[in-house]
Amino acid sequence: MRRVEKTAGQRLRDVVNVPLLVITIGLVVYGSVMVFSATSGMTGGAGLFKRHLVGVVVGLVPMVAAWALDYKKLKHWTGPLLVLMAFLLISPRIPGLGDTARGATSWLKIAGVRLFQPSEPAKLVLIVIMAALVAEYSGRIDKPKDALRVLAYLATALVLIMLQPDLGTGLVFIAITVAMLLIGGMKGRYFAVLALVGVIGVGAVLGLHLLKGYQEDRLLVFVDPTRDPKGAGYNLAQAKIAIGSGGISGTGLGSGTQSNLHFLPERHTDFIFAVLGEELGFTGAILLLGLYLALLVAALAIAASSRDLYGALIVAGVIGMWTFQILENIGMSLGMMPITGIPLPFMSFGSSAMVTNLGGVGLLLSVWSRRYGT
After folding, report:
1. What's the gap between Cα 253 and its chain centre?
2. At a CB cut-off of 8 Å and minimum separation 6, what does 173 contact?
3. Which of 273, 240, 241, 265 has the alpha carbon at shortest distance from 30?
4. pLDDT per residue over 126-185, tens digit each?
5. Helix (H) / strand (E) containing 110
6. pTM here?
7. Which of 122, 188, 195, 289 has the most CB within a 10 Å radius?
8. Which residues lie across from 141 on neighbouring strands?
9. Could you tell me if 163 and 147 are in contact, meaning their C-beta atoms sit under 8 angstroms apart?
């Protein structure tokens, strides 16, 4: 039978997932515009925006590296990756290296310069580790000992991250694992048990006052938004005012009163969505949600195209990471989720998060470009 030669366009599509790249570029540009607007009225805002752009450029390195690397080879690196993840999560607690911000010692600081947040790349490391572990069961996790083994890996990561403590990243770890287990074939009864353990765990943490004071205050404000409007509830109140004042089309870029008059705290990081809602209104918010939906659909298509469970699990982990962070960040600005320090993917200021998200794109591209076994 005569072999049909592929056109240049077909060969390009075999390696490059054009929709994913176009959507990623759109989100990065959108995020950069919003960070520029949010920082324009801040002291040192120009320097912050330059740092944001540096994070985008630096993030291209892990994206291209992950894309070029055959993801199947990562399956054999589970041991070293476990050590790497443990080091990343413990490193901020090493004397002389850690830096405390907003109640958590989660940053690395060397010679007085804050470098990066190691828990961010640890998310990608966890995805690769858990994908290799879950793939061992070939889509059927139906024995208690198998479920316990998988959850033990998650528990280890959670213990290490709570040493900082970083509750938000711990929740992301859980979301990543749940997304993988849904595809990995864990029985429904184990999810029910896991949910029950989670509820009991939350009750124990609150009952024993294991959370920091500010973390407890955030949960209490979530239950009662009117609680302490000038203290713990201030951020939420100002975020709601900002979003509500945006209306349909917004006040215009750089014209948000909540930002310019410095009412809205953490406006370029945690509450970037509130800035977007005020300045671009409902139209800008719908555009962002449309881009996120397109991103997740493109990722799901890559998972479906994968010829092996391991590749599909990697994609599922990245989808779980993005989905939870999107829902949590936007939800907390609307008062629908507790306030945490979880950044909005590709939108919030923060080089560590940007590098991690672009690295996640690289993993997806690696799975896509090798779906035919090449």
Report:
1. 26
2. 123, 126, 154, 157, 158, 161
3. 273
4. 999 999 999 999 888 888 888 889 888 998 998 888 887 788 898 999 999 999 999 988
5. strand 104-110
6. 0.90
7. 122
8. 186
9. no
